UniProtKB/TrEMBL annotation, chain A:
It is found in: Cell membrane. NCBIfam families: CydC (TIGR02868). Residues 343-538 form the ABC transporter domain. GO terms for biological process: cell redox homeostasis; glutathione transmembrane transport. Keywords: ATP-binding, Membrane, Nucleotide-binding, Transmembrane, Transmembrane helix. Pfam families: ABC_membrane (PF00664), ABC_tran (PF00005). It is a multi-pass membrane protein. PANTHER family: ATP-BINDING CASSETTE SUB-FAMILY B, TRANSPORT ATP-BINDING PROTEIN CYDC. One of its GO terms (cellular component) is plasma membrane. This is Transport ATP-binding protein CydC. The chain crosses the membrane at residues 20-43, 49-74, 137-161, 167-188, 254-272, 284-302. It comes from Marinobacter santoriniensis NKSG1. PROSITE patterns: ABC_TM1F, ABC_TRANSPORTER_1, ABC_TRANSPORTER_2.
UniProtKB/TrEMBL annotation, chain B:
The lineage of its organism: Bacteria, Pseudomonadati, Pseudomonadota, Gammaproteobacteria, Pseudomonadales. Its main location: membrane. InterPro entries: AAA+_ATPase, ABC1_TM_dom, ABC1_TM_sf, ABC_transporter-like_ATP-bd, ABC_transporter-like_CS, ABC_transptr_CydD, P-loop_NTPase, Type_1_exporter. This is Cysteine/glutathione ABC transporter membrane/ATP-binding protein. It comes from Marinobacter santoriniensis NKSG1. The keyword Kinase does not apply.
Amino acid sequence: MRDLTPWLRLILKRRGRLFIGALLILATLISGIALLAVSGWFITETALVGLLLAAGVKATIDLYVPGGAIRFFAVSRTVARYMERVYNHDTVLRLLTEIRTTLFRKLTGASRTGRSRLSGAQWLSRLTSDVDALDTLYLRLIAPAALALVVTGLVALLAWVLFDGTVAIAILLFGLLAFLIATAGVFFRTRDLAFRQSDQQEALRTAVVEHLEGFAELRAAGRLGRHGSWLLRQAHQMNVEQTRSETRVGWHQAASHLVLNLSAVFALWAGFHLHESAHLTGPVLVLLPIALLGLVEVYTMLPDAFGKLGGTLAAAARLNRDTTPANESGTDEAPLPSNGIAIEASGITVRHDDLPPLLTHFDLTVAEGQRLGIVGPSGSGKSSLADTLAGLLPPTQGRLASIPCAYLTQQTVLFEDTLRANLILGNPAASDAELWQVLELVSLGDRFAKEARQLDTWLGSTGSRLSGGEARRVALARVLLTPRSLVILDEPFTGVDSDTREQIIKRMDRWLAGKTVLSLAHGPDALPTTDRVMHLRY
Amino acid sequence: MTAPEQRTTRRWLTELADGNRRWIQGTVLFGTLAGVATIGQMVLLALIVYRGLIEKTPVSHLTYLFLALIGAMAVRALFQGLQTRMATHASAQVRRAVRRQIHQHWQAAGPIVTGQESAGALAREWIDHVESLHGYFARFLPQMSLSVIIPLMILALVFWLDWLAAIFLLLSAPLIPLFMALVGMGAEKLNQQHFETISRLSGQFLDKVRGLTTLQLFGQTEPAAEIIEHRSDRYRKVTMKTLKVAFLSSAVLEFFSSVAIAVIAIYIGFGLLGYIEFGPADELTLFNGLLILLLAPEFFQPLRTLSQHYHDRAAALGASAEILARFQQFEQEAGTPPRAVEAKTDTTGTIELQDVTFRYADASADLLRGLSLTIPRGQAIALTGPSGGGKSTLLHLLAGFLTPSSGSIQVFGREPGSFSFGWLGQRGFLVQGTWADNLRLTSPDASDVAIETALKRVGLGDLVNGRPEGIDSPISEDGRGLSGGQARRLSLARIFVADYDLILLDEPTAGLDADSEIFVLESLHKLSEAGKTLIFSTHHHALLSLADRILAVNQGEVSDA
């Protein structure tokens, strides 16, 4: 439960909104119960008075108050329900914004090694479903559970006023029993199953991806059918566990309904005893059991929500783990090298976690204004070295000092946003003229001048689609815009054809005049102009 | 992928339901029985009140009625529980059937067609899309039937008790199908809008998280957080406008049910007082009056439940449309299924291609034209030529991954792909697990010694011995796998363990580091010496020199080079 605490605190920050939303739900529930209870009272009253009238006894009945109440509750149930849904949906969307921004800010401060350990796409899809689980925490879990208790308390209070204390306490106990069956009971009986669910699903996903990657090999070896059947069995196994958990939820729901129904039977039975000793009138006797039957609706949503609580807790635990603040202190501010030097590395070791080091005792000195190329085959640790020199991956040994740099990572990262927004990440102060200038440099000026919205062209899946080479050049342009005197470029020309590359290299030469440039590539022809080239061996 | 028509999607869902009819019918049956028990419960409740208050029967004489009431409630709970059990079981069966169907489509499409799609996307369809069908089969579909059956049962009973009250019920829900359509329209729009917003917000959020390192490099994380906040807020405002309208449809349902209850309560009350002098009102008693009132909410309850499950339908339709679109796409791309070829002369010792022509389903020209070729068992054949010239296609035909548009291929007297052989693609592949698991994937009976030897042969021996538990230690620790070259050598080790007669390799040395390249070359040399038939595409001169025969594949023609 502790894992939920930070998220609950976040949700409960909007106390006012949550309170009003809860009041609206309460109004809906009470209107529903009251509509039936008052109607029951009214019918019984009229039946009894009707009998007296038929027998010729003079009797009076007030038709206006109960008639008005019935009409009022019929309307208030509708209105409260509508307002509740609109208001609470708004709250959910607000919470969604808040949870996402908070999570994003937390991720910003989280340890990068923890984040990179998880494979990209898989981690992102899991993140999405984990955040979704938190979004509905209030509307599915907190509000219904709290209100079930409140309404049960109110009905018990009603019993105390209309019947007596003993009946009230008994009803309270019935209600609490139903509540425990629908909440804690479900939670404890499905927790482990729900906890395992998402891990199982991830394991299955990995297995399916592997199956598809090895499709040709498995097919050639004649093992495709068997491996496929194995996958089907795994998937069915997962569904069988899910079925088990949902069936448990179903039985708990049925049991909590039964307990509430039994409390109505009890109220009826106790009511007759009170009626026989003339402590209670007939109409009032009918009112309470009907109200108790109405309680069922309040409890309906609970078992399902609590059946998912185990999964929600697991989701919260994963999010907490992924957002653990970095404990490496001061990595952001690399020490500055001596004057006239841009990068000074002595005896550094580059390694990821506990894996064998990629580079050991690595020395490198780059003077300001120098253009150094580093060439090595894939797998030789080039990109990890670049990450280290750029300050993303701290060296595990040795001393590294460098001036602040602009870094083009091996992976092209563009955002689903406008071209302008993507470019000005490099330099928020850049003018339109500067943006066009740098686009010309990477030979994309004409490409975007033709677009209707020019710099505001939308990039990404919903907008203008860029080829791999074009995307690479946008990323390069963004780095070139950055006003830093050290530029590190990892495979700057991936997917760019050789003619375009030649042109860009020439223009980059002028643009980067006076700056220190460190570029890395798999071969010398993929490098911009350099003064000297180092070779990394595998 | 083009989306199939909604009618096709709905028909597919219906077929799935038909295939598992018994479980779904069981769900409806238990739902109906629970409904009957509910009616019984209300009858007993009204009867107890009537006996006690009007007939003044002492409560001690009502014990058997109380017991019957408790019994009805228990039976109702039992049937409710059984209904869930049936429902979840029905859904699990359907999901299993769908997964099997998807799997069959993958198999029919073969490795070339499936290989063109992202494995992640296909896995998502196989796992998540199929899971999206759950709510439809477990909740929505049975509830569709129940929302007709139960209200009709109640209506019949109320009609018998007091036809005027039944007419009130009927009037408030003039035609149940109309009502359902109304609910459906609102719910559909609502869900669509809601899901769209949520997925757009998630998309925006994920996009920024994906590029978090980049944002940090440029020191732009805070502005990005503000953008997320700002955009979310804008989406919220837009969505709320639509939702305010969409919620009205469920409010209408709520309104009618509330008004119906109110009207019935007042009608019964006035009837009992004797104020209503027409119709059946003078026959009203506390028993039938109270019973009608208790049944009124139960009349609307199934409809309200259905409207709550409406998003299950939308989710299932969306997922099915994508699954079916993929089926269509694969069927088109895979082209015609293989047809039987008459066995000619005895070809058990050779690979025979006769007049083979191949053209991709969407291509305008033949990739291979009238190709005839005989390759004796035990030879090493190198295929060379420009990229796109048909080398890989020829290998795929020999592997049986593709079928020729015309002509016949016999591999050692059999259909290509009808027996086990070794295949080494451009990407190696490994599964989560130990080294031994990975080799036993294709050779389940391989001994530990055979596995160790095979790994040694491809130069992975040192790497494995360096791990604490040797071949029983996991391949990838900390989620990091092998390099591309190492993965390909692992695949090669599988071929060593399995001892195939025929081995096909697509550019076995392309993009390899120097170390891996040496091991691959040596391995192929060993395999060739062991008398295996090797056919590989390559440009690598060392590999070309390993071949007994070099074939140039270019512009649909194959000739000795």
